[in-house]
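Holo prediction. Input below; ligand is FE2/S2 (inorganic) cluster.
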Amino acid sequence: MAGQEGGLTGPDLAAGVAAADLAPGASLLGHAFGESVLLARVGSDYLAIGATCSHYGGPLAEGVIVGDTVRCPWHHACFSLRNGEALRAPALSPVPCFLVERRGDRVVVTRKEERDPLAATYPAANPPRVAPQRVVIVGAGAAGSAAAEMLRRCGYTGSVTMVDAEQKSPYDRPNLSKDYLAGNAPPEWIPLRPDGFYEEHGIAVVRARATRLDTARKSLELDGHEPIPYDALILATGADPIHLGLPGEDDPRVHYLRSLADSDAIIAAAKSAKRVVVIGASFIGLEVAASLRARQLDVHVVAPESLPLERVLGPQLGTFIKSLHEEKGVVFHLGRKPDRIEKTSVVLDDGTSLDADLVVIGVGVRPRLALAEQAGLAMERGVRVDEYLRTSASDVYAVGDIARWPDPHSGQRVRVEHWVVAQRMGQSAARNILGANERFDYVPFFWSAHYDVSINYVGHAEQWDRIVVDGDPAKRDVSVRYEQAGRTLALATIFRDDESLRVEIDMERAIAR
Ligand SMILES: Cc1cc2nc3c(=O)[nH]c(=O)nc-3n(C[C@H](O)[C@H](O)[C@H](O)COP(=O)(O)OP(=O)(O)OC[C@H]3O[C@@H](n4cnc5c(N)ncnc54)[C@H](O)[C@@H]3O)c2cc1C
Ligand code: FES
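Structure of the complex:
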């Protein structure tokens, strides 16, 4: 029976559909046993998995099928159509897998199978002859936690220890400036995993600051703990917000945003504040502006550039983002720098005084490199890694915001601050520790959300000689291509998820040739 019962669309796949309805490479959305199911045909195989992405619930039926995988349209996670495995972050957990039987000229979904998220079902890496006994990961953020999970998913049974100075990591950091800050995401959505999850999977979490890395002795020193020996170590220490050093910056009304505690402090301050000055029109600064408008605060944004985000996204999207925020009531003070922060105001370099009972500074981040520098690792405005994410010290890998790697797509050594890239780096480093010998060649991807508009960006373009705009950002339907010498380096889109995925796939194929 086809229909739309209880939000379910398409045919009841447990009752079966005509096999001939699906050409090779095609898929259809239906339902079985009360759940949305994606049925796909790959060659002569009929495969079915849950149709809802395990990251934020994206509709997999609107994604793109590549071989026996499907990519999510929202943030480019990738799932195996054969077993539901989450092959690429940001999804960390599998979607359910459904058994499909051929009955005459029909295909019928017969049973649902669910697995533990860390079941050892990841396509096996080439196991090294001598597997490391002890893997230590410094930093339980995006990259570190994804690495720890991947070790178990690959069937690694040795010891895994994550060290983190924070009490609540890992959590959904991108949400801290978006729905969580706006009051639209409850606190229970923020941890990446439930209490007890790591313990249950044999991953030790040590809540301490790592202070020294001795690569000769293969030992990590911690504040208040015995040193931890390692056979392989992953550095994933992330980044710190840049402080401007303004007079008055140490006032308790002044906030930065990196951690859950920072976001909670801004939320607490916003409850009694009326007017916020955001210093910096960065992605984080502007997301904070949007979220605090949702809390009905008056929001003023101060930044030295003439157009927000123009350096990253070009003038067309910069103009759109500025007008989007202005429509929502944000007041910009562009071409201006803050001079000082006083008791009830922020004073700008032209003497303008902006009342402020809350100030948030979002002027970028600096990678946390102290441990890598102290250990004497080769540095290059970040930790220099090779294509396998190895540092200059043997058995030490660096991933996430701190790592500068050779990106085959742009042909440059790049360091980016993207959630998905950090997670995938962690996953690749984990597989390489187990002998996969896998080059890190994923196309960089990030997203940023402002009110009802989400911008997706694939590739990496620090400069370009041409921008090609197709569509109209004001209509929430646009793609912007950043080209150099006729080559697409990157694509930014608003509500053109299919195009974003297809450009990502084209970029992958271009380096495979
Ligand atoms: C508010 C906010 C919103 C964002 N939104 C987006 C977005 O929409 N899209 C996007 O692509 N990216 C976004 N990002 C960027 C993204 O979160 C980062 O790129 C990503 O978290 C980097 O992962 P990481 O593992 O390198 O570092 P982190 O996730 O920062 O983790 C590093 C961890 O290391 C720990 N640590 C550091 N030093 C030590 C030490 N010496 N000892 C012990 N522990 C240590 C820290 O406590 C931390 O838990 C956002 C960032 C922020 C702050
Ligand atoms: S919802 Fe699917 S990747 Fe985010």
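The first helix runs from residue 142 to 153. That is the main takeaway for now.
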